[in-house]
Design brief:
Strand order of the largest sheet: 1-2-7-4-3
Helix content: 40-55%
Largest sheet: 5 strands, mixed
Distance between the termini: 50 Å
Radius of gyration: 21 Å
Number of strands: 9
Number of helices: 15
Structural class: alpha+beta
Length: 398
């Protein structure tokens, strides 16, 4: 939204997502908002509201009639020209045309088929990390592992991983730095990558059981075969969402373990439930802090009037610390069960790749347990709005 669209004067300035308080301690700032102004206004980027409570985030996520994904899904808004991000930028029922085609690649048998090559990739990266003079988990393990996993899942050649990783990293850095001209140029380069990948598969289809584009080409969706733009749009979304956000989460897991020697010891001794540990990591370190919808009409939430056309951030990170849902929510509890976190979203746009993300987390825990004991090194860098978590993490091995 532009600053001159009339929204800013209508919205209170309850917080600044990139201000000193948010950067110093985002969890404390979100706790303040949940307590004092759970539907929080901000003047940043022309004005928007943020939903901070669990129930409100869930209700809006499940209500595309009032909160649409077709106008804007992130804030600041990403460049709108170029390929659509499918199915993210479609509301149901249109979004189901794309989700049904993609769902076939995230079934249990498909995930089992990619586990072995993903483990082999992770183990090789872990050996190199342990041998490095200054081991840095983000660039030494998390980034190449998540990009390589995406290539394995999509049937892309691992030789394409370097370019894909660079484009994704540079795009996020440009958006977070407010350099939208550079972000637009990189976005066009990512579009070109997706279009070249689709053209390659159209010219020489691969096994539809292991190659996503070839599988989508062979799928028979409602409304007829996917167009070239639709195929590239589905690939486009996956190329960024499939590795940038997971990288941060894996780094956050390693950071937490590096700072908790007792938990690290229990992991090595296999004296904990790794499934529950991963779910609690997801609750506490939700890597995609928020996604955005736009109000289709004037609507009230908790007494706050949200005007038609206003962007509304659904803050999953805050919802996952809601005191009315989670006992002692600021405490990390590896045994927490049940765990009603919504780190993957909820409703019609719930993350398609959650099974792959959890597989990556399981493999990463195995890798970390096999490494020598480690602590946090000299340099740690954290992501900024709308991401959350650690992006760079130097480790010190015992």
């Amino acid at each position: 939204m532009a600053a001159d669209d009339g929204l800013r004067p209508m919205i209170p300035h309850d917080w600044d997502p990139t201000g000193p308080a948010s950067l110093a301690d985002p969890q404390a700032e979100l706790a303040r908002l949940r307590r004092d102004c759970p539907v929080a206004g901000s003047h940043n980027w022309g004005g928007f509201y943020t939903l901070t409570r669990h129930d409100d985030v869930i209700a809006a996520s499940k209500d595309p009639e009032r909160f649409t994904a077709t106008v804007q899904t992130v804030i600041p808004a990403s460049p709108r020209k170029g390929l659509p991000r499918l199915p993210l930028q479609k509301d149901p029922p249109e979004s189901m045309r794309y989700r049904k085609g993609l769902n076939q690649f995230f079934k249990e048998n498909r995930i089992r088929a990619i586990e072995a090559p993903m483990r082999a990739l992770a183990e090789g990266l872990a050996r190199d990390l342990a041998a490095a003079a200054t081991p840095e988990f983000g660039t030494g393990f998390a980034a190449p592992f998540t990009v390589g996993s995406l290539c394995i899942l999509a049937g892309m050649d691992l030789s394409e991983a370097d370019e894909l990783g660079r484009l994704g990293h540079d795009y996020v850095a440009a958006v977070q730095g407010g350099d939208m001209a550079t972000a637009g140029a990189i976005s066009r380069a990512i579009d070109g990558f997706a279009l070249r990948l689709v053209a390659d598969r159209q010219a020489a289809p691969r096994d539809p059981e292991t190659d996503i584009v070839s599988g989508l080409m062979a799928f028979d969706p409602d409304g007829g075969p996917y167009t070239t733009e639709e195929l590239a749009g589905m690939v486009r979304l996956m190329l960024i969402g499939g590795h940038v956000v997971p990288r941060n989460f894996l780094c956050s897991m390693a950071w937490h373990l590096a700072g908790d020697g007792a938990l690290q010891a229990r992991l090595r001794a296999d004296r904990l439930d790794r499934r529950l540990l991963i779910e609690e990591m997801l609750r506490c370190y939700s890597p995609n802090q928020a996604l955005v919808r736009v109000a289709t009409r004037d609507t009230r939430i908790g007494g706050t009037l949200i005007p038609q056309g206003c962007p509304v951030a659904l803050n999953f990170l805050s919802a996952n610390r809601d005191e009315t849902v989670f006992d002692d929510p600021m405490r990390f509890d590896e045994t927490r069960n049940p765990n009603r976190h919504i780190a993957f979203g909820i409703g019609p746009h719930m993350c398609l790749g959650l099974s792959v993300a959890k597989l990556q987390a399981r493999i990463t825990l195995d890798v970390l347990a096999a490494l020598p004991p480690f602590t946090i090194g000299a340099r740690v860098q954290w992501a900024r709005w709308t991401e959350y978590g650690v992006t760079r993490l130097e480790l010190t091995f015992a």
